């Protein structure tokens, strides 16, 4: 299959309308329809159920949509990494969640800069969960991720630091003086629902908690008495006097890892990872 065919199919599969897909691709509808038919004949499967009123994906079409997105993402990542490898002067792009692992990141950058042959490190600060996507699509060479929040499947990683979690409450809340709380107790705080973070698709899960996009927004909502949150204990450094924290011993341990694509042959990435693990 050609990448052109995959792009055609993804457009039709996402729009479920040949006219809109053709407009999105800036092409006429008849050649788009012929291209999809030729793809179906070559694969020997029906990818789309077509009626006079609607277009729907078959089971085979759903599989190809998932695989085609991954294949196109891999092609774009290869293009980005290839161009960056030829860039002058050479450098490394490190993605990390804004506010997370701040002390570790500062020490890492200072220690790496002192290494012989160190190159410039561009730090990309992003929202929760975004650094993984930047690494996978080639916009970043290396990333600091936090398990279990971030998925590291298919990446090479080295664990750097593990920490427990705490629940952040408004200062003065009746539970703020407790020595510890359980996850069961936290999830039943109807007056302080847990926040809802966006999925990778951009939508939010259902639930009573407020929709949040970053920790600044989250901590302001907590101070206003509209939510609580279970976070790594290192985030205490970002809290103000109108917040209180209580340990949650049965919350999952958070492990910060440094991650990079398994096929990377960059000496700069290897040196950065080596410095991180030494720290």
TrEMBL record:
**Keywords, A to Z?**
DNA-binding, Transcription, Transcription regulation
**Transmembrane residue ranges:** none
List the Gene3D superfamilies hit by this protein, alphabetically: Periplasmic binding protein-like II, Winged helix-like DNA-binding domain superfamily/Winged helix DNA-binding domain
Question: Transcription regulation: present as a keyword of the record?
Answer: yes
| HTH lysR-type domain residues | 1-58
On the tree of life, the source organism's domain of life is: Bacteria
Which SUPFAM superfamilies does this entry report, sorted A to Z? Periplasmic binding protein-like II, Winged helix' DNA-binding domain
Task: Decide whether keyword Amino-acid biosynthesis is in the record.
Answer: no
Concerning PANTHER family, the annotation shows:
HCA OPERON TRANSCRIPTIONAL ACTIVATOR HCAR (PTHR30346:SF0), TRANSCRIPTIONAL DUAL REGULATOR HCAR-RELATED (PTHR30346)
> What family does this belong to?
Belongs to the LysR transcriptional regulatory family.
Q: What is this protein called in UniProt?
A: LysR family transcriptional regulator
